[in-house]
Write the C-alpha cells for this entry.
Amino acid sequence: MKINFLLNGKKVKIDVEPSKPLLRLLREDFEIKSVKEGCGRGECGTCTVLMDGKPVTSCMVPSGQLTGREIKTLEGLEKEGVIEHIQKAFVMEGAVQCGFCTPGFIITAYSLLKDNPAPTRSQIKRAVSGNICRCTGYTKIVTAIEKSGTYSEDSEK
C-alpha cells in the first residue's frame, strides 16, 4: 500500500504493509532512532510520537492509517528548536539516567506544556502516566517538566 504523510515537516511517500506498526516504519524505513520499542503493547510510552499534534504510542498505530497525517518525532522537535528547554530541564534536574525512556517523556512533556505552560504536579503526573521509567522513580522527571518553563525563560535572557 502506498501512503503519503508528513514526517517531521517533510512530505514522504512510501510503499508499506498496512499492518506494519508506525514504530517499525520509523526505525526501519526512516532510520529514526529516538522512537524505541519497549513493551510493543502501547503500555510503556517509550515509542511515543506526535500524530496530528497528539501523543500516541507508535507501536499501536498501523502504517495503513498514516495517509494525510502529520507525525513528529523527537528529531523533528529538536530541528524546530521547540524542546531545548525541556531537554535542559531534564539534564539539570537529573531526570535522565539510562535514557531509554527519555524521548517518550520529552514528547509527552512537550505536548502537555504546549497546551498548559504551567501545569500542576498532579497534571504532570497524569500526563506522564502512560510513560514508564525503571530508573528514576519519576520525582526528578516530574520536577524537570515542572521547571521546564523556568529553563525556557532562562534561555531567553
In short: The chain has a mean pLDDT of 93. The longest strand covers residues 2-7.
